[in-house]
Amino acid sequence: ESVVVITIDGPSGAGKGTLSQLVAKRLGYHLLDSGALYRLVALSAYKLNVNLQDEQAVADVASKLDVKFDVTGDTTKIFLAGENVTDAIRQEAVSMNASVVAAYPKVRAALLQRQKDFAQAPGLVADGRDMGTTVFPQAQVKVFLTASAEARAERRFKQLQQKGVAVNMEELVKDIKARDDRDTQRATSPLKPADDAVILDSTSLTIEQVLNAILAYVR
Ligand code: C5P
């Protein structure tokens, strides 16, 4: 493929979202937030009263997903059937349900082409769990970004605190580990580094340091 694809995979809270945005901005590339798609499926299923245990029904929701990513400058607004759900899809309940629906092979299959379509000139930064292994196996640059569960929970804690959301640190660590387990242990496209991915541990690095490491690797 002539379009350059950079994949950034890793567990929740490792900083993929922030880093992917920064890399995309720096290079003038498009951005795929694949986690948002799974979150949208979870939210949509909830709104449509679809039973989350019913794989086929959830996959139907995924294939019919009416979503629009509205990019202006640094901000992306996400619309589900015309409704702005940018904040709604970040709620903890949606995070949990996203990792439940993401374990269904039929849901992943339903979202595959939609994700591939994001690869447009001049390039794409794809953020997720299986970008380098499944969705863009031919990507020129693959990064696997990790950090300890505690460091990831702490970052999330600070984010939520800033938003004025009351949270319990132990609960956060527990939630993060539960999501990690579901993501790494599922049969279809489990979270794992591609064989040709460079592994970056951000536990004791600043965003700036990680950004520079990724950009150096791209060059
Ligand atoms: O990255 P984010 O936390 O927004 O993703 C939400 C959930 O979607 C993850 O916990 C994971 O279960 C799922 N996901 C996935 N594959 C991706 C991106 C996200 O299974 N490529």
UniProtKB/TrEMBL annotation:
Predominant subcellular localization, coarse grouping: cytoplasm
Documented EC number(s): 2.7.4.25
Keywords: ATP-binding, Cytoplasm, Kinase, Nucleotide-binding, Transferase
Superkingdom of source: Bacteria
Annotated Gene3D superfamilies: P-loop containing nucleotide triphosphate hydrolases
PANTHER family in alphabetical order: CYTIDYLATE KINASE, CYTIDYLATE KINASE/PANTOATE-BETA-ALANINE LIGASE
Annotated protein name in UniProt: Cytidylate kinase
Lineage: Bacteria, Pseudomonadati, Pseudomonadota, Gammaproteobacteria, Cellvibrionales
